[in-house]
Design a protein that fits this description.
Layout: H1 2-16, E1 34-38, H2 44-53, E2 57-62, H3 69-79, H4 90-97, H5 99-103, E3 110-117, H6 125-144, E4 149-155
Parallel strand pairs: 1-4, 2-3, 3-4
Helix pairs in contact: 4-6
Length: 156
Protein backbone atom coordinates (compact mmCIF):
# COMPACT_ATOMS: atom_id res chain seq x y z
CA UNK A 1 0.00 0.00 0.00
CA UNK A 2 2.76 2.43 1.02
CA UNK A 3 4.75 1.57 -2.12
CA UNK A 4 1.70 2.15 -4.37
CA UNK A 5 1.10 5.54 -2.77
CA UNK A 6 4.77 6.47 -3.28
CA UNK A 7 4.65 5.44 -6.97
CA UNK A 8 1.45 7.41 -7.51
CA UNK A 9 2.98 10.51 -5.89
CA UNK A 10 6.16 10.10 -7.93
CA UNK A 11 4.20 9.76 -11.19
CA UNK A 12 2.08 12.83 -10.31
CA UNK A 13 5.25 14.83 -9.62
CA UNK A 14 6.69 13.81 -13.01
CA UNK A 15 3.53 14.95 -14.76
CA UNK A 16 3.73 18.33 -13.04
CA UNK A 17 7.32 18.82 -14.25
CA UNK A 18 7.37 20.86 -17.48
CA UNK A 19 9.12 19.26 -20.43
CA UNK A 20 10.88 22.52 -21.26
CA UNK A 21 12.79 24.48 -18.66
CA UNK A 22 11.92 28.10 -18.18
CA UNK A 23 14.53 30.62 -19.33
CA UNK A 24 15.19 31.37 -15.64
CA UNK A 25 16.75 27.91 -15.30
CA UNK A 26 19.26 28.40 -18.12
CA UNK A 27 22.55 30.22 -18.64
CA UNK A 28 20.52 32.67 -20.75
CA UNK A 29 18.78 34.05 -17.65
CA UNK A 30 18.91 37.83 -17.50
CA UNK A 31 20.41 38.10 -20.99
CA UNK A 32 18.88 40.14 -23.77
CA UNK A 33 17.01 37.95 -26.23
CA UNK A 34 18.91 39.35 -29.22
CA UNK A 35 22.63 39.78 -28.73
CA UNK A 36 26.06 38.96 -30.14
CA UNK A 37 28.69 38.63 -27.42
CA UNK A 38 31.86 36.88 -26.36
CA UNK A 39 31.25 33.40 -25.01
CA UNK A 40 33.29 34.26 -21.88
CA UNK A 41 32.28 32.00 -19.01
CA UNK A 42 29.61 30.07 -20.91
CA UNK A 43 30.19 26.45 -21.81
CA UNK A 44 29.10 25.31 -25.27
CA UNK A 45 27.31 22.27 -23.84
CA UNK A 46 25.31 24.47 -21.44
CA UNK A 47 24.28 26.74 -24.31
CA UNK A 48 23.27 23.74 -26.40
CA UNK A 49 21.27 22.30 -23.50
CA UNK A 50 19.58 25.68 -22.99
CA UNK A 51 18.64 25.92 -26.67
CA UNK A 52 17.25 22.40 -26.55
CA UNK A 53 15.25 22.97 -23.39
CA UNK A 54 13.79 26.18 -24.84
CA UNK A 55 12.99 24.48 -28.14
CA UNK A 56 15.34 26.79 -30.04
CA UNK A 57 17.70 26.05 -32.92
CA UNK A 58 21.34 25.50 -31.93
CA UNK A 59 23.97 26.32 -34.56
CA UNK A 60 27.61 25.58 -33.84
CA UNK A 61 30.76 26.17 -35.88
CA UNK A 62 34.29 25.44 -34.72
CA UNK A 63 36.56 27.59 -36.88
CA UNK A 64 39.91 26.60 -35.35
CA UNK A 65 41.27 25.20 -38.63
CA UNK A 66 40.24 28.18 -40.76
CA UNK A 67 42.98 30.42 -42.09
CA UNK A 68 41.15 32.76 -44.47
CA UNK A 69 37.76 34.36 -45.06
CA UNK A 70 36.94 31.61 -47.57
CA UNK A 71 37.85 28.93 -45.01
CA UNK A 72 35.63 30.58 -42.40
CA UNK A 73 32.69 30.77 -44.80
CA UNK A 74 33.23 27.18 -45.99
CA UNK A 75 33.32 25.87 -42.42
CA UNK A 76 30.23 27.83 -41.36
CA UNK A 77 28.36 26.58 -44.45
CA UNK A 78 29.36 23.00 -43.71
CA UNK A 79 28.70 23.05 -39.96
CA UNK A 80 25.45 25.08 -40.16
CA UNK A 81 24.27 22.86 -43.04
CA UNK A 82 23.63 25.86 -45.30
CA UNK A 83 22.09 25.11 -48.70
CA UNK A 84 24.27 24.12 -51.64
CA UNK A 85 23.49 27.41 -53.40
CA UNK A 86 25.19 29.39 -50.57
CA UNK A 87 27.33 32.01 -52.35
CA UNK A 88 30.17 31.87 -49.81
CA UNK A 89 30.39 35.59 -49.14
CA UNK A 90 29.21 37.67 -46.20
CA UNK A 91 26.05 38.90 -47.98
CA UNK A 92 25.06 35.33 -48.82
CA UNK A 93 25.69 34.29 -45.21
CA UNK A 94 23.31 37.01 -44.00
CA UNK A 95 20.73 35.97 -46.57
CA UNK A 96 20.91 32.31 -45.52
CA UNK A 97 20.53 33.21 -41.84
CA UNK A 98 17.48 35.40 -42.35
CA UNK A 99 14.94 35.53 -45.15
CA UNK A 100 14.71 31.86 -46.27
CA UNK A 101 14.51 30.74 -42.64
CA UNK A 102 11.84 33.36 -41.91
CA UNK A 103 9.83 32.24 -44.96
CA UNK A 104 9.96 28.59 -43.83
CA UNK A 105 7.53 29.27 -40.98
CA UNK A 106 7.41 30.28 -37.34
CA UNK A 107 10.79 30.12 -35.63
CA UNK A 108 11.31 29.40 -31.91
CA UNK A 109 14.64 31.22 -31.59
CA UNK A 110 18.34 30.63 -32.12
CA UNK A 111 21.46 30.06 -30.06
CA UNK A 112 24.57 30.33 -32.26
CA UNK A 113 28.16 29.57 -31.28
CA UNK A 114 31.16 30.60 -33.40
CA UNK A 115 34.09 29.06 -31.62
CA UNK A 116 37.75 29.91 -32.23
CA UNK A 117 37.34 32.53 -34.94
CA UNK A 118 40.83 32.85 -36.45
CA UNK A 119 43.04 35.84 -35.71
CA UNK A 120 45.80 35.95 -38.30
CA UNK A 121 47.02 37.96 -41.29
CA UNK A 122 44.58 36.26 -43.70
CA UNK A 123 41.62 36.78 -41.34
CA UNK A 124 42.48 40.06 -39.66
CA UNK A 125 40.59 42.26 -37.23
CA UNK A 126 38.59 43.87 -40.03
CA UNK A 127 37.45 40.47 -41.38
CA UNK A 128 36.50 39.34 -37.86
CA UNK A 129 34.43 42.48 -37.32
CA UNK A 130 32.72 42.02 -40.70
CA UNK A 131 31.81 38.46 -39.73
CA UNK A 132 30.44 39.55 -36.35
CA UNK A 133 28.55 42.41 -38.05
CA UNK A 134 26.73 39.82 -40.16
CA UNK A 135 25.58 38.11 -36.97
CA UNK A 136 24.69 41.46 -35.35
CA UNK A 137 22.58 42.32 -38.40
CA UNK A 138 21.02 38.85 -38.24
CA UNK A 139 20.23 39.40 -34.56
CA UNK A 140 18.55 42.72 -35.43
CA UNK A 141 16.58 41.04 -38.21
CA UNK A 142 15.17 38.46 -35.79
CA UNK A 143 14.61 41.07 -33.06
CA UNK A 144 12.34 42.98 -35.47
CA UNK A 145 10.30 39.77 -35.72
CA UNK A 146 10.32 39.20 -31.92
CA UNK A 147 12.41 36.01 -32.30
CA UNK A 148 15.34 35.43 -29.89
CA UNK A 149 18.75 35.24 -31.58
CA UNK A 150 21.79 34.94 -29.36
CA UNK A 151 25.24 34.53 -30.85
CA UNK A 152 28.33 33.69 -28.80
CA UNK A 153 31.86 33.77 -30.16
CA UNK A 154 35.46 33.21 -29.17
CA UNK A 155 38.74 33.98 -30.92
CA UNK A 156 41.56 31.52 -31.52
Amino acid sequence: MKRDLFLTMERDAEMDTPLRREINDTPLKGMRSNIVQSIRAFRVQDLQDSASSLGQHFLYANLANAQSKQDVLDMIAQQFLLPAHFGKNFDALYDCMTDPVHKSGAQPGFVVVLEQIPANAKFDKEAREQLLDIFRDTSDYWADRKIPFRCFYSFL
